[in-house]
Automatic annotation (TrEMBL):
GO molecular function, one term: RNA-DNA hybrid ribonuclease activity
UniProt keyword annotation of Magnesium present: yes
CDD domains documented for this protein: RNase_HI_prokaryote_like
Signal peptide extent: none
Family: Belongs to the RNase H family.
One Pfam family from the record: Cauli_VI
Quaternary structure note: Monomer.
Entry cofactors: Mg(2+)
InterPro entries (UniProt xref): Ribosomal_bL9/RNase_H1_N (IPR009027), RNase_H (IPR050092), RNase_H1_euk (IPR017067), RNase_H1_N (IPR011320), RNase_H1_N_sf (IPR037056), RNaseH-like_sf (IPR012337), RNaseH_domain (IPR002156), RNaseH_sf (IPR036397)
Substrates-to-products reaction catalysed: Endonucleolytic cleavage to 5'-phosphomonoester
Record GO biological process: DNA replication, removal of RNA primer
Protein name: ribonuclease H
Amino acid sequence: MAKKKFYVVWQGRQTGIFTDWPSTEAAVSGVAGAKYKGYASEAEAQAALKMGYQKALSAKPAAKPAGKAKAAAKPSSAALPDTDWVIYADGACDPNPGQAGTGLSLYQQGQVTELWYGLYQPMGTNNTAELNGLLAALKLAQRGVDQGASVTVLCDSQYAINCVSRWADSWKAQGWTRKGDPIKNLELIQQAYALWQTLKGRITLAHVPGHAGIEGNELADRMSVYAVEQKETALVRYPEPLDLATVLAMRAG
């Protein structure tokens, strides 16, 4: 029997502590900038809720008895949403603008099963890389939905999420224009928005903090940098067997 988890929602349709994933999903699904995290105990969840989102993410675990020095903690996947599939998307660009690439990590039933990299741009930006990542993640999510899986897509770019799930509605209503400056990266936004319209209400799309020690995000980050190093223009599956320690030791973005 699976251990009970407690989900803290700091920002969503409803906030507070939830004790099952369906209720949590209903509170955060489709909410731009939704902020939530799972905890193993009610005490941890209560403490995190009081701390607030940013403090809770940066809070260190309780000190353990002194003993032999240990290596730095590895990225954690403990807070994975309770859906069949969890897809992390990320993009890298250095300098900005400059060479850009995209990475994805896919968890199925709580285990990493696929890593993807590519969509290299010789002259891209952080935003184009992140939008490419979100678009690729939505395409992968469609595959999961077609197989009957519940799916969560997590992206560390609030810009990409807002473009697709929040701002694009009004831009489309205005003929894909806006007051002031033209809409940047419009073609990518239109593609991702069109796909989001078919998936909205069927998957969860939410923000995840970048470089916060979350395993799936860190893996996607390494893949995005690897895409730049390999100059891979297609989206390519990273070869198996997956050695996560080796991947996480790659250069970070």
